[in-house]
Amino acid sequence: MGAGAAAALFILIGKIIGAAYKIPLINVLGAEGMGDYQLIFPIYAAAIALTSGSSSIIISRNVAARRADPELKDNVGNCILYTLLLSLTAAAIMCALSKVTAQIQGRENIRYCYYIIAPSVVFVGMSSCLKGIFTGEGKVSFPAACQLFEQGIKAAAGIILSYELKKRSLIYGVMGAVAGVSLSELFSLMICLLIYVADKDKYRPVLNLKSGFFKENKFITAHGIILPLSTLADGILIVKFLSMFGSENASALYGIMTGSVNTVINMPIVIALSAAVTIIPAVSYGYALNNAQRIKEKSSKCVKYVFLITCACFFGIFILAEDIIKILFSSLSTEEYKTAALLMRVSSLNVITASLSGVYSSILQAVDESGICLKYTGILCILRVAVMIPLIYRFSITGAALSWTLYYSASFLIGAAYHCKFLGKDIKLVKNNGKILLCGVIMSVSILPFKAVSNIYVRVSACIILGAAVYFGTALILKVFERKGIRFTSSGRVYGAAERREKWRNSK
Q: Could you write out the three-class secondary structure of 90-155?
């Protein structure tokens, strides 16, 4: 198995574990407890974004570019030290402001959860730096393996601790689930360190603090911060506005959207975004060589395969929304189940648009167009929050989900437009994506008759098996991809092959 295939497999298993973990967790904590648990993570995600959200991208770009041109300036050491200092500062601030933050969120009993999650900010920062080095070297299976172990520890520790501590009270159960996250991030950092130390050919950064680092990387750093801040606004505003507009179970509704629905929706998205991050070294390598054709070829191939995966997931989730909720989240009440099914249908389009938006953003960042990503992402995030408030007033929690659907759709379209502007039109990609969309429509038509099957497990199993067979069979018949192209773009093998070709050309 090649490095790319191994990485894809590790990522897939890790994301399945990450998604499946929340299923028993919400059954342990209930919708209200899950709402409290999810309120912690916008703050946590914002802290990570501010301290290390762009570290992996900056380092992987730098390491990859230096492989193409050893004379380039090395910023890796700067990034590591700045990340460490910022992470320690953010963790301290999170603890100091825990009571105020919990009061603003309207759930003062979660304040101690911030003390438990704060060390993870440092753990994630350091492991992100090491994963960036691995990715830049083309060793994409290392960070993927770390991610797999991390998800396993989080699931095991989180479920056990939340189950045992909930016997004391619900908030103790929430604290146990949060503790599982911190333990998993510590374990991930330890694995990264062991792999790095054991690697005899490891990249050795020069550790120093130099001025100008943030100026040189300001667009990537700012872009990595904006989206988590937008999510943070959700954690502060949604519960408050739901309560203000008359919802008696605001925390439970927030938990259903973020803990149940987004768990399912995010699984294919995160897999695709992982692919988007690992494509950066290959594109950066081509950019350092001024090889626009190679950049266009590899980025278009990544777009095609991401769309191939997410298109099938979109149709499947939209059609089977009620069945998915019933099977995975049995603890929900009848009313909560209906709300979750509606939210899942509204959010299902995000599987495609959020994934492709992430791919296009990563490609633009890899070719030094991070400023453009920053501009349109910032504007769209502001508009999303502004639109979300009247949507919540009109449609309750469904309005919050709809605001994200509108955001990702606009972000995807703008990213695609800029990709076309810088690299030129790709008629072949448009035709292939049209064929993929047709495959999705044919798959949907083929599984609709099985919706009449009474047994839910038989119904879902039949839809998945038949749907997958029809979808990929139709893709083969329509020649969506050549046999040689099935190997995934983000593979380290692509990177190594490009390097070997350059060496061969130079030896001629």
A: HHHHHHHCHHHHHHHCCCHHHHHHHHHHHHHHHHHHHHHHHHHHHHHCCCCHHHHHHHHHHHHHHH
Residue 129 CA to residue 151 CA, distance in Å, equals: 19
CB contact burial 257-286 (16+ within 10 A = b; e otherwise): bbbbbbbbbbbbbbbbbbbbbbbbbbbbbb
pLDDT, one tens digit per residue, over 310-360 is 999 999 999 999 999 998 888 788 898 999 999 999 999 999 999 999 888
DSSP type of residue 484: G
The rounded distance, in Å, linking the Cα atoms of 63 and 492 is 14
Whole-number pLDDT of residue 82: 84
DSSP letter at 246? Answer: T
Show the DSSP H helices in 396-491 as ranges.
Answer: 397-423, 427-447, 456-477
Written as one letter, the residue type at 463 is C
Which residues lie below 8 Å from residue 473, measured CB to CB, with a gap of 6+?
A: none
Judged against a pLDDT cut of 60, whether residue 507 lies above it is answered with no
Dist CA 78 CA 216 (whole Å):
11
List the chain domain ranges: 1-216
- Cα 171 to Cα 177: distance, rounded to the nearest angstrom: 10
Residue 306 one-letter amino acid: V
CA 210 remoteness from chain centre: 31
C-alpha–C-alpha distance, residues 485 and 504, integer Å: 22
Mean pLDDT, residues 192-217: 67
Q: Quick one: tokens of 222?
A: 């700012």
Average pLDDT for residues 274-299, to the nearest whole number? 65
Structure-token pair, residue 301: 């191939």
Please state, in angstroms and rounded to a whole number, the distance separating the CA atoms of residues 352 and 374. Answer: 21
Q: Cβ–Cβ contacts within 10 Å for residue 178, how many? A: 26
pTM score above 0.85: no
